Amino acid sequence: MLIMQRMPVNVVRFAGFKNKVYELQVINLNGETITMNLRRQKNGDDVRFAIKGWPKFMKDNGLRLGDKLHFTFESAGNVMVLTNVESVNVD
């Protein structure tokens, strides 16, 4: 089963994504680069992009739903660099 996460509309606008398919390089806190594919999807009058491989990235990096992830974005190479993680509290 293919699981995709959707990129928030404000991030799509900031990054300037317009084409149907993009390759996105994501660099984790350890400096490892993972290549993910973005696929354009219509969302009412807006456009959103589904990210193939995001759930695996979360699992491989010990990230949990609710963690606040901070990235920088380098548009020249479609690179997102994870710079900080604010973990959710676990009771």
Structure description:
The chain is α+β, with helices and mostly antiparallel strands. The chain has helices spanning 9-15, 54-60, and strands spanning 4-7, 21-27, 33-43, 46-52, 68-74, 79-86. Strands 1-4-3-2-6-5 form a six-stranded mixed beta sheet. Strand 2 (21-27) and strand 3 form a beta hairpin. The protein is globular, with a radius of gyration of 13 Å.
Topology:
Elements lengths: L3 E4 L1 H7 L5 E7 L5 E11 L2 E7 L1 H7 L7 E7 L4 E8 L5
Parallel strand pairs: 2-6
Antiparallel strand pairs: 1-4, 2-3, 3-4, 5-6
Quick structural summary:
The chain has 91 residues and is an alpha+beta fold.
Intertermini distance: 31 Å
Main sheet attributes: strand count, strand direction, barrel closure? 6 strands, mixed
Widest beta sheet: strand line-up: 1-4-3-2-6-5
* Assembly state (oligomeric): single chain
Brief descriptors of the model:
single chain; 91 residues; 2 helices; globular
